Amino acid sequence: MKLSALTPALYAGAAAAAFAFAPVAMATPAPPPCVNPDGTACADIGTAGPGGAAGQIPGGPGGEAGPGGASGAIPGGPGGAAGPEGATGSIPGGPEGTAGPGGAAGSIPGGPAGTAGPDGAAGCIPGVGCATIPAP
């Protein structure tokens, strides 16, 4: 048999193989499994349900939220919480503050601090002085 007589059969065979393997070659590979730096599976870092949600990245930030409010913190960094009665937040070694239905308060270490509420406001600035202003 001549090679020229086999050429159509070779092309047909190559085309059939290309069609057969095309879905496998074009398929998106599965993503690698998610693993945290400490070796735990990513699915183990949080929960969610009808009552709220919570999550914590190992060695990193974490938080929770639900019908009563929300809170979160970064280890060694800022943290805060908020709910129906108000909110609070702080940065270690830095400013902090709280606010709610009865008023608000805030301070900066070594710097100004103050409060305000239904009875008035008060505040101090180091090296300058303090003041109180009663509510009208």
How many strand units?
11
Backbone CA Rg: 32 Å
Helix content: 10-25%
Q: If you average the pLDDT, what whole number results?
A: 82
- Strands in their spatial order, largest beta sheet: 1-2-3-4-5-6-7-8-9-10-11
Taking the sheet with the most strands, its summary is:
11 strands, antiparallel
Order of helices and strands: HEEEEEEEEEEE
* Count of alpha and pi helical runs: 1
Judged by helices, strands and strand pairing, the structural class is alpha+beta
Detail the poorly predicted runs: 3-7, 14-18
What is the 3D form? elongated
Distance between the termini: 112 Å
- Give the amount of beta strand, in percent: 35-45%
Describe this structure in words.
This protein is an alpha+beta fold and 136 residues long. Helix content is 18%, strand content 41%. It has one helix and eleven strands. The chain has one helix at 3-26; strands at 46-49, 52-56, 62-66, 69-73, 79-83, 86-90, 96-100, 103-107, 113-117, 120-125, 129-134. The chain has an eleven-stranded antiparallel β-sheet, with no helix packed on it. Strand 6 and strand 7 form a beta hairpin. The longest helix is centred in the N-terminal third of the chain and has 24 residues, at 3-26. The protein starts with a helix and ends with a strand. Residues 48-83, 91-114 have a biased composition (Gly residues). This is Collagen triple helix repeat (20 copies). Keywords: Signal. It comes from Mycolicibacterium chitae. Residues 36-115 are annotated as: Disordered.
Give a nutshell description of this structure:
Keywords: Signal. This is Collagen triple helix repeat (20 copies). With 136 residues, this protein is of the alpha+beta class.
